[in-house]
Design goal:
It is a single chain. The chain has about 350 residues and is an alpha/beta fold. Helix content is about 40%, strand content about 15%. The strands form 2 sheets. A 9-stranded mixed β-sheet has the order 9-1-2-3-4-5-6-7-11. Helix 10 links the parallel strand 5 and strand 6. Helix 2 runs parallel beside helix 14. The longest helix has 18 residues. The radius of gyration is 20 Å and the shape is globular. About 35% of the residues are buried.
Length: about 350
Amino acid sequence: MDIYKIIKLVGINKVPGFVKLLGLWSLIKLKRRFLGVFIDPVAACNLRCKMCYFSNPQKRSQLKGTISEDKLTTLENKILPYALKMQIGCGTEPTLYPNLALLIKKSKNKGVPYISITTNGQLIAQNKISLDALIEAGLDEITISVHGTTKEIYEELMPGAKFELLTELIHKLGIIKSNTGKPLIRVNFTINSLNIENLRGNCFFSPWDDGNCKIDIIQLRPVQKIGESEWKDFDLSFLEKNYNETVGNVIERAKQRDITCLAPTIDSLKNNFDIQDDVSALLEDISYCYISPDTIYKNDFLPSKENIFSYLKKKKMSSLIFKTIFGKGKVRGKNTSKKLQYKVS
């Protein structure tokens, strides 16, 4: 059973925030795994998707580098022993990293329970990186970024990508999953005013049906501005007006196919900024660990002199947690984030 079906079963999103925070405190005190590790091993992408900052020449020129061997050693020894999950590929393309399979293998050797990658999949389809090698190394989940399910829309929104390579990737996934049962397959579709028609009828599912490959999870994300990009239309009123025939349609068809679907509610579209309370902000601040060629966890984390637990002690984590739970004093201001409320169907 995948993690999203477990969420549906136990209703974890309904658990009070202070209970989650106490749970996190307990894991840290017991020196158990508590980190969600998110890593971009290279600061590059092979595509220039119109909704992404890689479509902006100025931003693209600033993104350079590959994670160093020293940082990988720090990751292996100081971070991975306490990771519950590792997500490879957050804002860049992980298949450009030549040692991707080795990174996955080392993470599994350190006991990381769940490892996923997010990719456009074009290099896998071209056999420039071996899907078999990633699976053998221990990959649990692959998320395919797909911004169109027809050739015209897919290639319009994802310059540099070929729709034929997407269908080849689907074919490869279908074969390997039928043989090994892995990986879990998730499709990440960012909705805008150009590709919304791909959510009507059976259009969304047609490439996967033709490739005889079952999707496990679908995540529908309304377009949001995450930096300067070629795409300029961020008005979501088009989606509100057509919600039932598009997002609602995919949700219903996913249910029929026993596919878990994560999608924003129509109410959340009317206010696409979520106000985080102190508890949610602190949970994320402590457990979220981002690593890139330039970053590792926090700016003031000194891995050569401390470990995760001594760092949190230095930051008086226990005091922060209990002040946050019991509201004694102002711990931090409420944060405005661009995280929509997603419903798991």
